Amino acid sequence: MTSSATSAADSTELPSALSAELTSLPLRHPRQLLDIWFWHDAINWLGAKGQAHFKRLWWAWVLAVLCLWGFSHYYWVGINITKSLPQRFFFIKKTDLSVARDDIISFRWDGGPPYPKGITFTKIAKGVPGDVVTVQGRDFYINGQFVASAKPYSKMGEPLALGPTGVIPPDHYFVWTPHIDSLDSRYALTGWIKAEQLQGKSIPLF
Fold this sequence. Notes:
The protein is of the alpha+beta class. 21% of the residues lie in helices and 26% in strands. The strands form 2 sheets. It has a 7-stranded antiparallel sheet with strand order 1-2-11-3-4-9-10, with no helix packed on it. Strands 7-6-5-8 form a 4-stranded antiparallel sheet, with no helix packed on it. Strand 5 and strand 6 form a beta hairpin. The radius of gyration is 20 Å and the shape is elongated.
């Protein structure tokens, strides 16, 4: 997963060729941009032409890094690698943790496999504190309005337990996307998202 990943009900892996290409680059984490040794290695990696370019326009690179550093305090870019939302790229506003119904939000995944704990999911806040979640069969309703049906099994054939029902408590949210394979609050693995898991409000780019 990348900085923001909206998952479907089954895992997705990067192609091995892409993974190999990414691991060949010197940058491993944005914080390296502030590390002088990263720049030393990066200039060597760029070769003679890259070194000449950097020496000529070093001030522009420094300005760009400072702008990126300042921007990263308030926003970061999320990439959706599944089809659970139609958009692929998002700005995640880290300073905005307020949530209203139908907001697109990003949060830390605290569930289990197929995804590692701590990756970022991006979904729609369909239910907010005080809403009543009910289920009939495997059909979920919020305040009496139909939301979506839950699949009985994942694509791997594993049974999918239903998520919680009842009144959504304070600082909890029912998250959802319209995709049939979305791993969201319909399922116990995701459940209701806690406020402490929130990473920010997401702004779709394209």
